[in-house]
């Protein structure tokens, strides 16, 4: 309850499409994206790119929000390759983050509040029986190495006696 109330107030006056944590994450990715070279495939909508760089080239589809590195699909935030392609088409990567990474979702998360609860002494008493705890089944005790050796020796002795008798 405390953390919900705290988080609600924390970013109440924050302006930006993404919350600070997501924003700085994306900034790092954008910075890294400068090392990659986007090459347009020639498609009609200007959405498919081959992204050249080390260790290997990647393929980005801005229309489908996918990259062969799979970062975008997994995190819902454009990867370095996608950011390289987006800067090529002059689009803001923030607009390509999934809605659950945005401030709107953050605000929606902390929109509700929990009902405060008084101490247990003030709780209403039930007229019904208290629930009974289930019976505890005890596990067979595990033997120590020494006990195991003794047991094996005894078993062997019994076997030997049987052999002698027959
Ligand atoms: Zn990628």
UniProtKB/TrEMBL annotation:
UniProt domain SWIM-type: residue ranges: 58-90
PROSITE patterns named among the record's database cross-references: ZF_SWIM
Pfam family, one: SWIM
A GO term, aspect molecular function: zinc ion binding
Entry keyword Nucleotide-binding: no
Cross-referenced InterPro entries: Znf_PMZ, Znf_SWIM
UniProt keyword NAD, yes or no: no
The entry's keywords: Metal-binding, Zinc, Zinc-finger
Entry protein name: SWIM-type domain-containing protein
Organism: Arachis hypogaea (Peanut)
